[in-house]
Amino acid sequence: MPSLAQPPKMDSTLGAAFLGHSATMLLYGVTSMQTYIYYRRSQNDGRVLKLSILVLWFLDSLHAALITAALYWYCVTHFTDPRAIQVPYWPIPTMIIVSNVSNMIVRCVFSYQLWKLNMNKHKWIIPVVIAVASVYIFGDATYFSIQLYSVESFLEVKSFSWSLYLGLSVEAGVDLLVAITQCLLLWSLQTGIQRTDMMLRILITYSINTGLLTSLVAIGALVSYSVSPRNYAYFAFYFVLSKLYVNALLATLNARSTLLEQKRTRGGMPSTVVFRVPTLPASSALGGTPAVGCLKVEYRS
Hints:
Blueprint lengths: L13 H28 L5 H31 L13 H27 L7 H26 L10 H28 L5 H34 L5 H32 L5 E7 L17 E7 L1
Antiparallel strand pairs: 1-2
Helix pairs in contact: 1-2, 1-7, 2-3, 2-7, 3-4, 3-5, 3-7, 4-5, 5-6, 6-7
């Protein structure tokens, strides 16, 4: 283990990591609940989408387990050894790879839906940009993790910190791009029918909140490391980032189901509205019904 001139401060190292772990486990509980709700309401979704959600939940579980294993090693196994705090224990770089696999799957699902729902002849441009950026982010995270496996102290991260800065910057930019594109598409689909437009505005709010939140967390990890690389505040931000991606996807899926259920249970004269929204509706390409990118809302006024 590396020698330390003076012991690190517990509050700003293990304390920050502990807070990040606590938030991670809270969000993991939300993920599990949302996954359960999704499978109860996903009868019309295709097999590929259902399988993707299952894979994401498994990766999310593995992500939580790796962080827990790392914190146990730091806080219990090496409770009396302050030098161990600076050692990159193997679950940490492994967690980075797992979280980026999960994040890439979420972005790919969103970019696929953006491509299917955009009626512009150049509709492929934004999804391709998102896909290329996602591949770069994953490659950058893999490089960073491999380097982290080989060093003996977190202080040595400085020698390849450019990877961290560049990866998180691209990640924040891509999240904003996804959110902005979703909002513009939803806004353009307004029909002038009050109830339909109200549903669209709700979905726009979901897109803004989820996209902006993941961008802010990525920026938070970036800024906290640049300001104080010896402290682990950036751990707290990075630990929750993957959980926010999965919850953003599940929240959008479950919001779709909730809105449809609310409309179907209203009494009065039946009416039907069909519109396209990028909220991962069932598609023929994914083996489900109704048609690709369409939500058929039947309500009673």
